Model the fold of this input.
Amino acid sequence: MGLINLIVGLIFIALGFLVRVYPGMLAGYNTMSAERKKNIDIEGLTRFMRNGLILMGLAIILLYLVLRWIDWSYLANMVIILVVLTGSVILFLTSGKYDHNPEKKSRSHYIVLGIVLLLLGGVFFYGFMTTKTQINGNMIRFTGMYGKEMHVSEIAEVELMDTIPRIVIRTNGFSLGPVHKGNYRLEEFGKCRLYINSVKGKYLIITDIEGFRTILRYKNDQESLRIYERISDLL
Done:
């Protein structure tokens, strides 16, 4: 199973139990005055947060397993993002019923939530930006998320292929739908760096002198062919 999903899921489960024991972990509660805390149903709130966080953790682990089992790998790679976004919004909006303070609720919490969602949206947008391959002299640069540079002298082989081995695990990367960027482990190939931006098209595979592969897939095969030819000429 996905190591990242297992780790993130267990973290959420652990946080659920910790929040129940240490209410001061709840954002905003530890800074409240003693008078305001009296009007918070802390017993109900911590129980609600515990259950919600544990359910989120279990969902991150079990949904991933189920979706991989039925071979919905693209959706499986989105589990963490979908569960965290959906669960966080539900917990945030529902937890207000445990606050019985008579004064009007501050809108600052909603502003913070909006900022968080905006930042997450920015991360998604950045992750979906197509990786560009820039060649300048003997230097090749891959732009965007998990960008990298390499010298032409480090390259042993460049090739175009219709398929690649199955992705075994994402060790440090961004996966959402058809997009895979960062460090992964593939069957047969082992450790690789992926810049996959599309569900179709040829794979451009750059293998360095140590056998490490950088794999790119563009939405347009002409772009892959253009880069392949440029690197081949340099070699």
About this structure: The chain is about 45% helix and 25% strand. Residues 106 and 226 are 56 Å apart (CA to CA).
